[in-house]
Each structure stands twice: as C-alpha cells, then as structure tokens.
Design a protein that fits this description.
Helix content is 61%, strand content 11%. By secondary structure, the chain is an alpha+beta fold. It folds into 2 domains: 278 residues, no CATH class; 154 residues, 2-Layer Sandwich (Heat Shock Protein 90), CATH 3.30.565. A 5-stranded mixed β-sheet has the order 1-5-6-8-7, with helices on one face. Strands 2-3 form a two-stranded antiparallel ribbon. The protein is rod-shaped. The N terminus and C terminus are likely disordered.
Length: 435
C-alpha cells in the first residue's frame, strides 16, 4: 500500500520506520545489558569470543538501522524482516557454538522476535516464527552439551524462557495490530478531509467559472447592443453637427457639438463597465498589453492623444526599457497591477469628462523607493482648493490608499492637471540584467 506525495508518512503501511524505532531501542538496551553482565560483572570467559563477534555484527547492523531512522529514510518490509532474521540466526549460532543453555545471549531473542512480530502483523505467521525459534533453542538446550541439569530446575527455566518468548510475540502482535488499525483510521479520516476539501475547491472553481461565463454573456450583450448603439449615436451626432454648421444652422450645430463629448463619455463608461465584467489582466499579469489596449481605446473614443511610458518593469520576463533605465527590473503581482490599471483607467475618464485636453501623458516607473504613476494632461485645469470636492478623484485616492500609497493632484486654472501616485516597494521577484 503506497501513499501519494500529499499524504503523511504514517499512511504508508509498507514503511516500518515507526515500529523499527522500538526494535532498535530494545536491541540497544539488551546489548548493553548483556555486555555489562558478561564483561564487567563477571570475569571474561574465552569461550565468549565467538558470541562477542556475533554481537559486534549485530551492533554494526543496529547502528546502520539507527542512522537510517535518524535521517528519516524509509525502512521497507524486506529490510526489517532481514534484520530480525539475521538476529535470530546469529543468536542461535552463538548459543550453539558456546555455552548453549547456560549462555545468557538468549535474551537477544526478544528484540529479534519483537521485530518479526511487528513486521509481519499476522498472528499465525508470528506463531510460526516463534515456534521455529523456540524449537531450535529447546533442541540446542536439551541435546547439546552440557544439556539441562534437572536438579538445578533448568527444565523450568527453559519452559519459562520459551513461555516469555511467546508472550513477547503475542503482545507485540497485539500492539502492531492496534497501531495499524489506528493508522488506518487516521489515514481514512485524512483522505475524507482531503476529499471534502477537493469537493469544496471544485465547487468554488465551478462557481467562479459560472460567474465568469455569466459576465462574459453580459459583456457580449453590452458590446453587441448598447456599446454599438452609443458608438453609432456618437458618429451620427458628429456628422449631423458638421452638416448643420455647413448649412448655416450654426446654433443647431453648436448644440449638437455639445452632445458629442456626452456621447463619447457614455461610450467610454460603457466600455469601462465591459472591462469590469472581464479580467483586467491575463493570468501572466501582462500590464503592458492591458495599458496599451486601454490607451488605444481611450484615444479612439475621445480623440485625445495618449503618450504611454513604462519604465523598469519586468513584463512576462522581458525588460521594458525606458528613459533612465537603471537595469533593475520588478515583476508586479497581478493584484497590484490590476489596481494600477484601474487607477489609470479612472484618471483617463476624468480627463475626458473635465479637462478639455488634447493630449495626456501616462508614466509608470519603478524606482528604488517604490512605483510612481503619473497622469498629466494639457487641459484647462482647475482650482486645487476644490480637489476634495469632486472631479471623480475619490476612487483614485481610495485605490492608492489600498496599495499603501500616496495620492497627489497638481493643477491650477489654465495649466493642465497632473495626478501623481507613489506606491511603496512591492514584494516582487527581482532580477538583475546586464547593462
């Protein structure tokens, strides 16, 4: 049973790191206890040399397994079984070579049997293993010299050791079965939560898709209906006004001429509503394309020339060069770029409504102190004391504040108007290009 990359390690039932940690700790304690009993608490017996060599091999293997666990590397079923089987074989060989029944090395059977029980998880398989091990140990103890000394109650000690081996295996088997059951419940609960989250995400995506489709239908209806009608109305008013003036109906021509900016403004507002119903930017955050389209559309509707300059902004991985290019680039986050586009959109609409300008210059520049956006026209301007009272500047100021920026209007009667937005440094992905 394998897990996906999104699932926790405990969901992998073929990874035995969790129970092998227990086996490694038990093995260390028993190895240490055996070494103390046979090499420190009692005189050294030359016959223990072979057992010592086997013990060193077990120590080396346990060190390797311990390091593997400390590194967080997975431990497969084959590795866990092989380690426990080697323990059993080495212990049995050591007992058979040396003092047989009187050899205290038999205590190493316990971690080996626990390891096998924790890996197999099957009660019947665990019983087969422990029966084979106890059978081999009993045969060595009974049939190989010095054998059992009945006067010393060796038979009862043998039965007790075998009984303890069975108890250890049964307890380990119960523990691993309970632990695996809890893990299975946890995995199932985790997958249920993941499935529920996926359903919520899918439902949210479907809802957004339906909303986008609805906006697209409304936008298409506005484009094919209202926008086309307003465009035709604007052209007809211009044509009729020109004809009236040429035919001598000056007063009628002047009145019609006053309706031309009204019709253009209505068309521009309609186009803005259409933009509100669709994403201002593509998924890649193409600021340049959005602003170029905005400027071209404004110029086409209003007959006001637009000079657009973008400096030191990284658009789709390409540097947009400009005057004073310092070589440093910045990639705007889509949310910030969208707000900036909306600010420029609203400022251009104000130019058409109020300025009477023939040209407007839009500058957008990245500086070490942040991003500067300015919209400057050559129109009639107005009294700066009335800035807070109208001219549609409230929305621009509000958007600038949302970005943590500053908003300023520089104007006077007959001197045009300059709107200046200064934004703090953004958290983009920066790149440095060669000059």
């Amino acid at each position: 049973m394998n897990t996906t990359a999104s699932e926790p390690s405990y969901a992998d039932f073929d990874d035995y790191r969790h129970n092998q940690r227990i086996v490694v700790i038990i093995r260390w304690f028993l190895l240490g206890g055996w070494a103390i009993v046979n090499h420190w608490a009692a005189p050294y017996d030359q016959s223990l040399l072979y057992v010592d060599l086997i013990g060193l091999v077990i120590v080396a293997l346990n060190v390797r397994l311990h390091i593997k666990l400390r590194r967080g590397e997975p431990v497969g079923r084959a590795t866990a079984i092989a380690m426990s089987l080697f323990d059993v074989i080495a212990i049995t060989a050591g007992i058979a070579i040396t003092n047989r029944f009187t050899n205290s090395f038999f205590i190493m059977y316990y971690p080996a049997l626990v390891g096998l029980a924790l890996v197999t998880g099957s009660r019947s398989m665990s019983m087969i293993f422990v029966t084979a091990v106890t059978g081999a140990y009993a045969s060595i103890s009974i049939f190989m010299a010095p054998g059992l000394v009945l006067d010393n109650a060796d038979d009862r000690r043998l039965v007790t050791r075998i009984f303890v081996m069975y108890i250890v295996v049964l307890l380990a088997n119960l523990i691993i079965r309970a632990e695996r059951a809890k893990r299975a419940e946890a995995v199932e609960a985790e997958r249920a939560r993941a499935s529920e989250n996926l359903e919520l995400v899918t439902a949210s995506q479907e809802e957004r898709l339906r909303a986008a489709e609805q906006r697209f239908r409304i936008r298409r209806e506005i484009h094919d209906g209202l926008a086309q009608s307003l465009y035709g109305l604007s052209l007809n008013i211009e044509s009729i006004a020109a004809q009236a003036e040429s035919s001598g109906a000056v007063e009628v021509g002047e009145r019609l001429a006053k309706l031309i900016p009204v019709a253009r403004n209505a068309l521009l507002e309609t186009r803005h509503y259409m933009l509100d119903l669709s994403p201002m930017l593509s998924e890649q955050g193409d600021v340049r394309s959005a602003l170029e389209n905005l400027a071209a559309e404004f110029q086409n509707i209003s007959d006001i020339e637009v000079d657009l300059n973008i400096t030191n902004l990284n658009i789709d991985g390409e540097q947009v060069a400009g005057p004073g290019d310092a070589g440093e680039q910045i990639s705007l986050q889509p949310e910030v770029a969208t707000q900036i586009c909306r600010i420029i959109q609203e400022a251009l609409a104000n130019v058409l409504r109020h300025s009477g300008a023939s040209k407007v210059t839009v500058n957008m520049e990245h500086r070490p102190t942040g991003i500067t956006v300015s919209i400057e026209d050559n129109g009639k301007g107005f009294d700066s004391a009335n800035v807070s009272g109208g001219f549609g500047l409230g929305h621009i100021a509000s958007r600038a504040e949302e970005l943590g920026g500053k908003f300023e209007v520089i104007t006077s009667d007959g001197a045009g108007t300059r709107i200046l937005i200064e934004l703090p440094p953004q958290p983009p992905q920066k790149e440095v290009t060669a000059k």
